[in-house]
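Re-run with default settings, no changes from the original entry. Doing this only to confirm the output is reproducible before filing.
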Amino acid sequence: MRPFYTLLVCTFLSVNLNAQNASGKKNVKTVIDTFFEGLHKGDSSIVSSTLHANVKIQTTFTNKEGLKVLKDQKKLELLKGISGKKKEDVYFEKLLSYDIKINGNLASVWTPYEFYFNEKFSHCGANSFQLFNNNGKWEIIFLVDMRKRADCKIVEVKK
């Protein structure tokens, strides 16, 4: 009879952990989606609501001379850039997928993307987000995006 109870407890814990993990992934994805909602609208207050006070932001790309570059950006610079978006300009970063990993109060999200400016393809790349569960609220603590114009495989999304 004892093996039956052990199996029952293990099954219950496994189901409970899977449900918590699915819920955690949903909450993390919501933060990423909110970040991009603010970006697309040019609303820096929405974006700011997703960022930790000490967020680190970087961009990497290969310049015209073929050198690989890594640039730092301050939180305030990012928010000013977003809020300075002209009303007539349309930003759309189409996320192609989400790869979300969570362990305790740390989450990692990888999102390959295509970026469109005024409905014209601009560049592609990938974002890497690190999030911290700040006592019940997931916040982005690190964001690095990679940008490239060559070797982009444009993915048409069926509507």
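Residues 13-19 have pLDDT under 50 and may be disordered. The helical segments are 2-41, 44-48, 75-83.
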